[in-house]
TrEMBL record:
Catalytic activity, as annotated: 2 a Fe(II)-siderophore + NADP(+) + H(+) = 2 a Fe(III)-siderophore + NADPH
Signal peptide: 1-19
Cellular component annotations (GO), alphabetically ordered: plasma membrane
Family: Belongs to the ferric reductase (FRE) family.
Entry EC number(s): 1.16.1.9
PROSITE patterns reported in the protein's UniProt record: FAD_FR
GO MF terms, alphabetically ordered: ferric-chelate reductase (NADPH) activity
Domain FAD-binding FR-type span(s) in chain numbering: 406-526
Region span, Disordered: 600-623
Protein name: ferric-chelate reductase (NADPH)
Length: 688
């Protein structure tokens, strides 16, 4: 335990001595002399003993002067060591006092050569002159030990630099898409098509991206796209490599007398530090106000994928760190004794917490109990970070924690600023059949809506006002109310169910007072496509409508727009009738609506100019607006046909249930080469 404690104290010096000749001068000497019995009081501390031992002081001076006879260099090298005498040994001693002690022993010829010691395990009675072999071993041990510790910062930094490179590539592509979209559109050669079909659009394994892969109905995971997986593969490979390479094990060793102990210590230190280097990216990628999202144009969903995988990497390193240290202290028979050390206890707490957080973040739990998951996630993360602080309060590497706290604080402050800047909003809310509610929001107009944007809102009520939920927003279709925003939602659990219950109690209509946090989200630039196909399922129509409405409002744009909506219930014609009529009246949009659940025993395709008049939408006369009841279309074949018939460059935007999204992903992948121009797949999804 004494050895582990002394080496833990030595870690404190790492930030200032690493790569510094002062550290190279002093610590091999102090380490070598500390390997002898100095006759310390068993109750004294590591520095308390050494900073008051004349034998240690004089021996250290002699060793340092043998290596560098410049007394100024010796004084400089010892200054930090003297500060530890006071901080960790409660001993106030100056350089001059130590130097005087050395000179007295030197004048009295009190020094003994190490080679002349008859019993090297007996307590020293005089200062010693180290044998060159002993000192050489100490120098090699010191150099190796601190390299292995430094490797944690180095390798962790490389991994974060890797993510920086991934972000830079994403930002560059996003920039080119904005300033030279035609250049991007020109990339449509057969080789490019094959590359996109193989490496960018599909999911990692087949086409299950929105549909989670599951095992035993409990363990499930949303599979990244292949483009995301390529970035993740590089990260995983780096994690594996940096856990396996560059361990310089040798005997004899000043610190450890076995290869096993050396490997445990070096692996523990490296992985513990690498875990800390993950914190800033972990907080940044999981935050709502992520400046990198603006730079890259990536969705929250993409950053959330990376956030989860970085968290898994961090937990892996933390567990290896803890297991390796546990193996080390078990080998030295000091496992129980280590629990008397605060840093050890807090390290155990931090490791257990991060494992609990990882388990609590399983897709099975967060997708079913998101509000509960989020609350517990934040609380446990705060306790975890506090435990990490107390674990390393005396060891260092707190800069990684400070950076993470700054990122977290920035995100929270910006949220508050957005709420205050937006001010209170009023939402005229109505309840519709099949658990649908719709809010028409009058807000301050201090920020502007754009297609692809979403907001988080807080309902001002005595209980639950702190809850927020993301909703896609779009502009009111009535030109006289274009200053208002609309959102639609389906009552499920948590906040949406509470809104539904409030509306039910108010006979289906109620005004809510809201605070709006937004807008968030990236806007896809669709104006450079000749054909724009929108495929929506259920409530996902709000996302595709926002883009379609924006396109039809631009009279100067000569685009072919196809709007497809698949929904289960006839009631959709009630709560979304104005929006559908707005698209139909433009005369620029082909609308195909499929109501899969119908009371009619037989269904056929009928145009809204045609046969039924039992809904406002049906009564609008347009040959470009068709409604099909009682049939679930083959979405794959439907969109494949539109792609083959499209002119020029084509975009396919989809927002719907997981099955529809993955079907469209497969459809677009298979048809990349079947259009007359480039085909792009755009998915609007907000997955937990």
């Amino acid at each position: 335990m004494k050895l582990l404690t002394s080496l833990s104290l030595l870690l404190v010096a790492l930030p200032s001595v690493l790569g510094d000749s002062s550290g190279q001068l002093v610590y091999p000497c102090t380490d070598s002399i500390s390997s002898f019995d100095l006759g310390c009081d068993p109750l004294s501390t590591y520095y308390g003993c050494r900073c008051t031992s004349n034998i240690f002081i004089s021996s250290t001076f002699q060793c340092m002067l043998d290596r560098d006879n410049n007394i100024d260099h010796v004084e400089m090298a010892l200054q930090e060591y003297l500060s530890y005498c006071l901080e960790y040994g409660n001993v106030s001693v100056t350089f001059d006092e130590m130097y005087d002690t050395y000179k007295k022993d030197l004048a009295a010829h009190n020094f003994t050569n190490e080679a002349d010691l008859k019993n090297k395990t007996a307590p020293l009675t005089t200062p010693i002159i180290l044998d060159p072999v002993t000192l050489g071993i100490a120098i090699d041990t010191y150099t190796t030990f601190y390299w292995e510790v430094y490797s944690g910062t180095l390798f962790g930094g490389i991994m974060m630099a890797y993510w920086g490179a991934v972000i830079a590539i994403g930002a560059l592509i996003n920039l080119i898409q904005h300033i030279a979209p035609k250049y991007i559109m020109s990339f449509n050669s057969p080789s490019v098509v094959k590359f996109r079909q193989a490496f960018t659009i599909p999911a990692t394994f087949g086409f299950k991206h929105s549909i989670p892969m599951s095992w035993m109905k409990i363990f499930s995971m949303a599979t990244p796209t292949r483009g995301q997986s390529m970035a993740l593969l590089g990260y995983v490979i780096l994690n594996i490599i940096f856990c396996l390479v560059k361990f310089d094990l040798f005997l004899p060793n000043t610190y450890y007398d076995s290869y096993h102990m050396q490997l445990c210590r070096y692996l523990a230190d490296r992985t513990g530090i690498i875990a800390f280097t993950h914190f800033p990216a972990l907080f940044l990628f999981g935050g709502r106000n992520n400046v990198l999202a603006w730079a890259t144009g990536w969705s929250f969903d993409t950053f959330n994928v990376y956030h989860r995988w970085i968290a898994r990497g961090m937990v892996m390193h933390a567990v290896i760190h803890s297991v390796a240290y546990s193996a080390l202290v078990t080998y030295t028979n000091s496992y129980k004794a280590e629990f008397s050390e605060a840093y050890w206890v807090w390290g155990v707490v931090a490791t257990v917490l991060c494992c609990v957080i990882l388990g609590q973040s399983m897709h099975f739990l967060r997708s079913r109990f998101y509000e509960v998951f989020l609350f517990i996630h934040i609380v446990l993360a705060a306790i975890f970070m506090a435990a990490c602080y107390w674990h390393c309060a005396t060891l260092g590497w707190l800069e990684w924690l400070y950076a993470s706290w700054a990122i977290w604080a920035f995100d929270r402050v910006v949220r508050v600023v957005r709420l205050v800047w937006s001010g209170f909003a009023k939402a005229d809310s109505k309840l519709y059949p099949d658990d649908i509610f719709k809010m028409t929001i009058s807000y301050s107009q201090r920020w502007k809506y754009y297609p692809g944007s979403h907001i988080y809102f807080h309902v001002m009520r005595p209980w639950g006002f702190w809850e927020s939920h993301p909703f896609t927003i779009y502009q009111h279709p009535d030109p006289s109310q274009s200053d208002k925003l609309i959102l639609c939602g389906t009552a499920k659990e948590g906040m949406t169910r509470n809104i539904y219950n409030d509306l039910s109690k108010a006979s289906g209509s109620k005004n809510f007072s809201l605070l709006l946090d937004g807008p968030y989200g990236h806007r896809h630039n669709l104006q450079h496509y000749n054909t724009c196909i929108f495929m929506a399922g259920g409530i996902g129509v709000t996302a595709t409508y926002a883009y379609a409405a924006d396109l039809v409002a631009k009279a100067d744009m000569n685009q072919h727009i196809v709007f497809i909506w698949i929904t289960r219930h006839e009631s959709a014609l009630k709560w979304f009738s104005e929006e559908m009529e707005y698209l139909a009246k433009s005369g620029r949009c082909t609308i195909q609506m499929y109501i899969t659940k119908s009371a009619e025993p037989v269904s056929d395709t009928e145009h809204s100019s045609g046969q039924e008049k039992n809904s406002d939408s049906d009564s609008y006369n347009s040959p470009m607006y068709s409604i099909t009841r009682g049939v679930r279309p083959d979405a794959y074949e439907l969109v494949s046909g539109h792609i083959r018939e499209s002119n020029g460059n084509t975009s396919i935007m989809v927002c719907g249930p997981p099955t529809l999204n993955d079907t469209m992903r497969r459809c677009v992948t298979d048809n990349l080469g079947n259009a007359k121009g480039r085909v792009d797949y755009l998915e609007e999804a907000f997955s937990w």
